[in-house]
Amino acid sequence: MQNRIMKDLETIHNQTILIQSTNQTAPHLETELEIIEILLNQGNQVYWLQCKTELKNCFYNPKNDSFRCNTCYSKVSNGLKIIRENNTFSNNLHVLNYSDFKDIKDYKSIFKESFDSLEELKSFTYKSYDVGLAAVSSLVSFTRDHQPNLVVYKDFINRGLITGTFMYDVAHEIMSKIKPTFVILFNGRFIENRPLLRVCQHLKIDYATHEKGGRLQTFLFRKNSIPHSIDAINEEMDWLWKNAGEDKHEIGEGFFTKKIKGIEDAWFSFTKEQEQGMLPQSLEENKNKRIITIFNSSLDEYEGLEGFGPYFYKDDNVGIEKICNDLLDVEGIKLYLRIHPNLRGLQNSQAEFINKRIRPLDSVEIIDAEDTVDSYALIRASDIIIVFGSTVGIEAAFMGKKVILLGRAAYEKLSCCYIPKNHEEVIEMLRDENYPFSEINTKEAIKYGYWNETFGLPHINYEPIGFNKGKYRGKFLKANFITRKLKQIFEKK
């Protein structure tokens, strides 16, 4: 079955297309090559916007290291050579550089010296562009801290704002000169992608973002939306399910089966280091109590993204602390907090809050990220699961558990979780062992599993070998040998 997303790409014929290159790591550059070749074969004029070391901050090179810049540019240039050598219509591919339109040196003195808070930085705008929010998203991803130190990372922020505003003006210039009818970019979240996305939205030009697909062999191509859009995911999930074949239940269940077994497909398994069947020692002595387990999220994963986070708490930490405090005097409950394995080894603001404000509370036992306790065994042993949007919520629902969802999630519209109206209702659901939980259909979770297994387009010329490695047209795409060696020598030093 060919899904609607594929048709979005297939229907682009005889147009002027702008595609931006910003992330040369596999499979993202290879995905760009794939898209470019499809568009060329469909009779389009394609303008490929490349960075020729102009940008001062990007996801691949957050420290603005010249050796990484040169390596990136060399690899992208080699990708261009592959297209020139193999595509019949490569004469319709035109390369643009940012310096063709503006000089980034003109943007070095237009910002204030510092920001007093993360909220002030988030709200900082340039013209009609939310450049501060994009800078925060990139900074949080770089530091793995949802509340990074703005003084320590002052240079990172400044370079990000310079890059973002420079790119915003360049994007406007490009739109006025080549007048693209469609624009394609990576992800849309980071400081180097968001300007182009915003210009498209302001000028009402159709665009698409690309990212990894649901499986290694696929890539996402989402029209007029970013990969993280909950509304877009829900629409996609609903369409795929309605148009699926008779094996959709089997495919959807297969997603959860692989997750529970720790099988890695599209991304790393966070539970493969856990000991299968292992439970906390304290569970045996509390087996006659109601077992409630909170699974937290990595706060840095959604900080800087619009429309994410808890429904009525400031963040996960605050919500968990309030729940633990309000259960201090309740007997008959054993409360666990399972720290997300993705937080393993991090000493950031989230970890500091947990250690100082939640760990000392008598009402909760913390299972650390590094602990080998089996998360799925813990789910089976629990009566109620609490999540703030992490995937473990839908997995627990699939396993037939009562799941209280307290934050935005791609599965929030499926009728397999309980979504309280406020904190008071949360506490009532937890304190009252006779609380009248409404009937829900936990099998609705299978729709989410099916979506995960089927969204995205199949790679044609790219052959993945692991998560971040693969061959394009039978060869590994690399930077020039000398450029790679110089980067390796410098990084060792």
Automatic annotation (TrEMBL):
The lineage of its organism: Bacteria, Pseudomonadati, Bacteroidota, Flavobacteriia, Flavobacteriales. It comes from Flavobacterium okayamense. InterPro entries: Capsule_polysaccharide_synth, TagF_C. Gene3D superfamilies: 3.40.50.12580. This is Capsule polysaccharide biosynthesis protein.
